């Protein structure tokens, strides 16, 4: 009798398990599936990062590898943002690396209720805001050079452009040397370094250029001072801000503030190896 009871119990449990599996197949949970895939992939990327730190043969190779991993993490976050809170948080924190189109794709993937929340509204506002974002063409705004002549943007055609937007007084002396070394290490025919300077007059522009030794750069100022409309047009939130473009003039990176390691990671430019690997 006891044996028969045990057999019946085992059969009942097997049937319950079969029904449960069938229900899971018919009504899978997209949140759990996405959540698991996202977490598993992140673990693999983290292991790959350890491998890069351990076996990279040069700083350039290491930075390239880490940058590519970070881009992959952000790409995954965009894909899973609608189902994974950590992915959505990453999209929010790394918004400055996304184009308008990418942000709108993430926004459109969210549930209607999430779109109506503050974060959803902020994402939509980001995609529609004024200012220059990744993927936008770098504006060729009007200005003059240190010689008083209109700035000729044609000198940047077919080149990568690094626009350093003000902040000269905030940079340490070592940072000024860092950029001078970067300029010396790069090919002028492939990279144009443009220095935007706040100035309300030609006299002030020339004074600031001399004070910060900006002569090696392509200097431009709209002579509107700090109160001019260009900050709003560019979407400046703090200075210095760096815009790095590809050879077609599309912005590839927007970096606010200056930290050498972060700058190298975001732009691929360094006084150690000069040229960026981002477009290679």
Give an overview in words.
- With 280 residues, the chain is of the alpha/beta class.
- The chain folds into two domains: 30-128, no CATH class; 153-267, Glutaredoxin (3-Layer(aba) Sandwich), CATH 3.40.30.
- The chain is 51% helix and 9% strand.
- The chain is built from eleven helices and five strands; from the N terminus they run αααααααβαβαβαββα.
- It has a five-stranded mixed sheet with strand order 3-2-1-4-5, with helices on one face.
- Helix 2 (30-55) packs antiparallel against helix 3, helix 3 crosses helix 4 (85-93) and helix 5 (100-109) runs antiparallel to helix 7 (118-128).
- The longest helix is centred in the N-terminal third of the chain and has 26 residues, at 30-55.
- The chain is globular and about 60 Å long.
List the helices and strands and how they pair.
Layout: H1 2-26, H2 30-55, H3 59-80, H4 85-93, H5 100-109, H6 112-116, H7 118-128, E1 160-165, H8 173-185, E2 191-196, H9 202-211, E3 218-220, H10 230-234, E4 241-245, E5 251-256, H11 260-267
Parallel strand pairs: 1-2, 2-3
Antiparallel strand pairs: 1-4, 4-5
List unreliable stretches of 5+ residues: 8-35
Number of domains: 2
CATH H-level superfamily of the largest domain:
Glutaredoxin
Order of helices and strands: HHHHHHHEHEHEHEEH
- Chain-averaged pLDDT: 85
Number of strands: 5
Largest sheet: 5 strands, mixed
Q: Gap between N and C termini, in Å? A: 76 Å
Tell me the Rg in angstroms.
Answer: 26 Å
What is the helical fraction, as a range of percent? 40-55%
């Amino acid at each position: 009798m006891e044996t028969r009871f045990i057999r019946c119990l085992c059969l009942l449990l097997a049937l319950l398990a079969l029904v449960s599996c069938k229900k899971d197949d018919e009504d899978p949970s997209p949140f759990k599936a996405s959540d698991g895939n996202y977490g598993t992939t992140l673990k693999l990327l983290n292991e790959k990062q350890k491998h890069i730190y351990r076996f990279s043969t040069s700083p350039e190779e290491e930075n390239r590898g880490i940058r590519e991993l970070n881009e992959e993490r952000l790409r995954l976050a965009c894909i899973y943002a609608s189902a994974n809170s950590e992915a959505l948080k990453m999209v929010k924190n790394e918004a400055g690396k996304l184009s308008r189109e990418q942000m709108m794709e993430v926004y459109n993937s969210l549930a209607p209720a999430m779109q109506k929340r503050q974060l959803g509204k902020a994402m939509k506002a980001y995609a529609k805001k004024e200012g220059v974002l990744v993927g936008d063409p770098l504006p060729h705004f009007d200005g003059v050079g240190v010689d008083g002549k209109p700035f000729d943007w044609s000198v940047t055609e077919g080149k990568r452009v690094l626009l350093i937007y003000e902040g000269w007084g905030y940079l340490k002396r070592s940072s000024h040397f860092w950029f001078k070394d970067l300029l010396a290490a790069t090919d002028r025919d492939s990279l144009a370094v443009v220095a935007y300077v706040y100035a309300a007059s030609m006299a002030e522009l020339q004074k600031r250029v001399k004070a910060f030794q900006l002569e090696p750069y392509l200097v431009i100022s709209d002579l509107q001072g700090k109160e001019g409309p260009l900050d709003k047009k560019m979407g400046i939130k703090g200075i210095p801000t760096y815009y790095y473009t590809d050879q077609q003039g599309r912005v590839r990176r927007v970096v606010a503030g200056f930290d050498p390691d972060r700058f190298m990671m975001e732009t691929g430019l360094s006084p150690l190896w000069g040229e960026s690997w981002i477009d290679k």
